[in-house]
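Marked as duplicate of an earlier ticket. Keeping the data here for the record.
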Amino acid sequence: MKVILAGHNIDRDIINEFHALYPNRNDLTPETIAAAYARISRNPAPINELRVIARDDIEKARLSNKNIVFEMGHSSIAEHAVFNIDIIGVSRLVAEEIEHSRLASYTEKSQRYVLLSDDFVVPQEIRGTDLEELFIRTVRRQNAFYHELYEKLRPYVFDKNTELASKRANKSMLEGWAKEDARYCLPLATETQIGMTINARNIETMIRRLASSASAEAVEAGRMLYDAVYDIAPSLVRYTEPTPYDRQRPEVLFEDVLAQYSLKPSRLRTTRTGRGKAPNGNAGLIRLLSVAPDADDVIAAVMIARAISIPFAECFAIVQRMKQSEKKNLFKKVFKEMKPHDSAPREFEHVWLTFELVVSATCFAQLKRHRIATITAQPYDPALGITVPESVTAVGMEPALRDLCAEAAETAEKIAKHAPAAAPYILTNAHRRRVIMSLNAREIYHMARVRADQSAQWDIRQTTVRMTELATKAMPLSMMLAAGKDEFNARYGRVFGK
């Protein structure tokens, strides 16, 4: 056996230095590794020798990639070419569109840890119009309120956590708690930056999807991504123009259904967003829409099926004949050696749960990070109310936040009449959207460990705790150890009597 490192990430500045020293070298491209790996199935030579062949003739390697990836349809070959990309100065709103792509890795500037300045994106759709001045004036007020709110929240957080505040090492953490609640007033136009790692196959899909967006900023982001990678890997990034299929809009596809039932497509509504309490209180909506019948039995049967060579139907029949105590013991055997950092068994992926959620933009920014899930998000809707941090209420700033959010919603409605794609930019992190989220039972465990933990931000923690409670009610045996890391040992003790 041999294990050979074929390549690794190198900073672009170092690549540029290499090109300056060796201007005639054109083999610093991930296409060569993709081409070499593409030949594995038909060429008996060792892989490391195939890589040498690919580097010696770049044009031949590129032609090979085009034939194999696009003519023969072996698209997975493009996944061997990987890019690291800096995305700077993009709005939080379009960051959500970029990070909609599941098969990539993202690290985004955190509004929890960084005290923000006043950087924001003015949507191209309203630049040079009368709406631009209204937009900028509203954002300036939101940003000024953010700094005012932070100055009130910071001493409140320190006073409320005197024991933690007594240790200098906790200063940054406590200041972060103040920042994360102050950010609820910030607009989705706020600039952010993203470090992204993505392969050639998925960046091609991302570029095409961004190009079909109704947002001019998203379209520009797609074009700039294309410009960043095309010269490096032209044989792997080809089909980047949106197709009619990509351009389909649900409101157009289903206009006959909407008309039949007297429904109107999603639009911004200021109804009920004013200075009163938000609909459904401050908790939003968390509802379990569906889960497989006999979910515990399905998982138990799959785990038995891994141990014995009989059809699944027979395994399922065995489980259904078991007493509840026998089923519980079966799961306890599986969980006996589990530790807080362990994932649930892969067999848990055979059961899926679908939730309906109404969450703030702040909560959604964290929810979208769970890319194993399938997430369908409606547009931000001011009629769903806002989420107000308890700390903001405690320092007497809730009325001011509600006024600010109501003003943002009214401004958004004015913008929507002339430039619908630009309207959501002015909405805040406190505004809500409705989300349909499907995820398997194993991912519920992962969410619980990370997001139900005491160290998690309170908004996503409340959402995750409730989702986990609903999942546990539906499948109590499978979910018996689904909890945050901080609660795991106590939960384990109750299950195993320790």
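See parent ticket for discussion. The CA atoms of residues 84 and 314 lie 48 Å apart.
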